[in-house]
Amino acid sequence: MTRYLLRRLVYGAILMLCVLVLNFFLIQAAPGDVVGAMVAESGGADPAIVEQLRVKYGIDQPLHIQLLKYLGNVITGDLGHSFYYDAPVLNVILERLPSTLLLTLTALIVAVILGTSLGVIAALRPRGWRNHFVTLVSLVGFSTPVFWLGMMVLIVFADYFPIFPAYGFTSVPPPENPWALALDIAHHLVLPVCTLSILFLASYSRISRASMLDVLGSDYIRTARAKGLLESVVILKHALRNAALPIVTLAGLQLGYAFSGAVLVEVVFSLPGIGPLLYDSIIRHDYPIMLGILFGASFTVVMANISTDLVYRLFDPRIRLHEQ
Amino acid sequence: MKDANTRSPDLELKAPELKWSTDEDEVKPEVRWIVTWHMFCANKGAVIGLIVLITILLTGIFGPVLLPGDPFAIVGQPFLKPGQDSVLGTDYLGRDVLIGIVHGARPTLAIALSATVITALLGLFVGSLAGFFGGKVDSFFMGVTEFFQVLPSLIFAMVVVAVFTPGLLTVIVAIGLTSWTGIARLTRAEFLKLREREFVMGARAVGASNSTIIFKVILPNALPPLIIAITLKIGLSILFEAALSFLGLSDPDVLTWGMMIGQSRDFFFLAWWTVSFPGAVILVTVLGIALVGDGLNDAYNPKLRGR
User: Fold this and answer.
1) Which of B162, B235, B306 lies closest to A282 in CB terms?
2) Half-sphere exposure of A292 (CA within 13 A, CB side)
3) Spatial CB neighbours of A6, under 8 Å, sequence gap ≥ 6
4) What is the DSSP string of A16-39?
5) ipTM greater than 0.95
6) Residue B147: its chain A contacts at CB < 8 A?
7) In this complex, is the C-beta atom of A198 within 8 Å of any C-beta atom belonging to chain B?
8) A226-246: pLDDT as tens digits
9) pLDDT tens across B242-251, in order?
10) Chain B residues lying within 8 Å of A137, measured CB to CB
């Protein structure tokens, strides 16, 4: 088991290395060089200072040395320096990260719980209207542009029925009392979380229905029913436990798509997360931040993949026992 | 289910039984497609999806002829509500929403289709080579696939477009580069399955070269599930393009549905029609594609339908 974990970690490290190399070449491909963009932002400068900056960032060195320097920097935690914010990229990103994580993880959890329930309900009556309803929901969820859905949700629930706030993470000024603050944040996050989770609800309800149908047809369920167990016990304790694993693993592997959706939702709802940061950095040609976000997001996805893989191997007794 | 490898050579001389099923390994491909088409037509959702798609395609092709105009032209007062002088209302500049939708169909669909072509070519290429050769080639290509899978698609596409400056070609290539991994995995799975079949062995015995086997022997047989996946990818490309143009990362001279939503973003509380209608059209289009793709899948693989 540990050997497998080590192998996966090494593989993950190689992947991240490739991402960094890609980042490096993207920087090089960007029009103008790094220092040029930096100088343009601050409105032009004395050629001597520009030359100094070039030496400082190692631009005068051959490409492979620059690459090695870049890799060395990243390993020590230096993702570069943002032109616009005049601060280390890592700090700028970490400042925005909590909002994005809160949104994404909450939405994923909501989507998994709701989606699984819908799928289970549909699986119990394979020919009923519930089945068609779940299929329809999942197809519509798949086809909806998430940013448009966010705006529609806002129009209905923040304008026609002004129940929820239209933008932001907290009210301005935010309440002092920590409980009131938590409630305020929750109030602001309801609409964004709903919007983002609908996107994933679709796939989870389908997988859960397929998985449950698969499980419900197996012999041990028939045995459980023959034993005379209550139907609810059969479904919840026996069927769902076995059907849950593919759903959970799918959730872990979908983090990449979750980030993409979160970027759009954050832009629409003006949340102070990674999304608007990425969007602004593109407008401002702030390449260090753009690439820092790409690296950070990829890193998170790699970590999520490895964790999901581990969880799967730990919880599926067939694989766990096979390794002994 | 009979295992093809254990059939003795004598049985090959008998005429094959005609089986009216869509189960694999038992029918000729042509028969399977006929049965698939019949089952598809019996699926109400799939037929509705097909009708919707054809309608939108026709609108895209003939709409600009029947309803001429320039989507960028100012035709009236800004923020006209739908119904008065303008069927679907006007946006913040006074441009007509209906004309925008009808004229925007072509660029939206064209971009999505071009991106899907790139996606399909890349996916088929990588997947077929990985599945056919196996071993080190497979490991290499799977590594490449996993690399592209790890990069979050929208974020990567945004960065690519930012670095190489926004434009139609950049958008198409960016979408293509980020979407191919699913097709590659599917192609590889199909190739691994088909590689051991007797018709491949037969081709090898006749002395066919590797490339002939890959492209003329295995690939045509691997296509059906791939076609379904590629169909769904078209829908995803539409959504992807909409996201990029919503963020303003596409060519500003080409009006697509996503761009209409993005440009009216600041005013959607005042003028919901500028945002609702283009988005609804995107939803309906992708839903149509999804219904058709799903219907094809159910019709071709009834065993996996879960009924």
Assistant:
1) B162
2) 30
3) none
4) HHHHHHHHHHHHHHSSS-HHHHHH
5) no
6) 15, 18-19
7) no
8) 887 777 777 777 777 777 777
9) 999 999 888 8
10) none
